[in-house]
Structure prediction request, 363 residues.
Amino acid sequence: MARAIWTGVITFGLVTVPVGLYTATEDHTVHFHQLQRGTSDRIRNRRVNERTGDEVDTSDIVKGFEIGEGEYVIVEPDELDEIAPGRSQTIDISDFVDLDAIEPVYFDRTYYIAPRGKEYTKVYELLRAALAEGNKVGIATFVMRNKQYLTALRAEDKVLVLQTLHWADEVRDPGTELPELSSGRAGRGKELQMALQLVDALSGDWNPKQYHDTYQEKVRDLVKAKAEGQEIATAEAPPQATNVIDLMKVLEGSLQAARSGRGGEEQAKQKSKPAPRKTARTTAAKKTAKTPARNAPPKKAGAASARSRGSGSGGKRELQKLSKAELYQRASDQEVAGRSRMSREELIDALARSTRRRSKSAA
Prediction:
């Protein structure tokens, strides 16, 4: 059970509901310690005087704001504490605005808000339903851990979500900050129509579970392989940028591939980059991919016979209709080794081989 990181009340008008604030996300990044090369000795950061190189105790550290080269205004920690806002106990909604009116760049971190007791669920649900029906968000400020936040309170299914927002002066103007922006002249004509058709052909329902952080999976595979004394394949080179002259041809090829179910993105990548060179590591990775799945569950003879009939070219054709994310999920279900390092075509080949082996063993 998650613990509230902040407790207080939400107010809108004269209505008040006691709530708790809960972290909505967690980090799945693989974390490493820093070690000295050739040893198991941990590396620690120290606070040192830049001029003398001597270590400085925390109690002797003050803050300095530079007003000129080598000239600072010194601020003591106690002075900051004296002007810091105290912890507020109220999320006071001052305005309601359309959800679509807030540009995505303003959104920062996401939290869940829950009522602090069953007796408050009716008022809580009243606010959630009102926001959902009106497609509105409540704008409010509150203080947590000596920092003031601008927030947007919005409704999700059965829960209120609070998202901290960047202040207006924290958001950069792309027109003045970025070196190159689109003129808008390219967004017309046959190319636009072709691009719209491609977007439509690749459109589908939002399903976050079909996406995976493949880089973190590769990091875990790397750690496991090194622990076992194995090697893994290096990453493929990024595809080359599409030439404006070939844009229509690339769009047509992408659309044809998307409509045929083969995955437009993968074919477009193959057209826009040179063939990858075979290396010892790549070969090792392919050998790893050929390893049959272990501990595969037994199958019934009838099902095995049906699979046997579809495991040849027909079975492969069925696999080619799936997206890479769907192929990866199926490879995970069948425990295909080395799947996180495979391209779409390698996943298809590995799944076809796995299906044939499982069919033979079941027969």
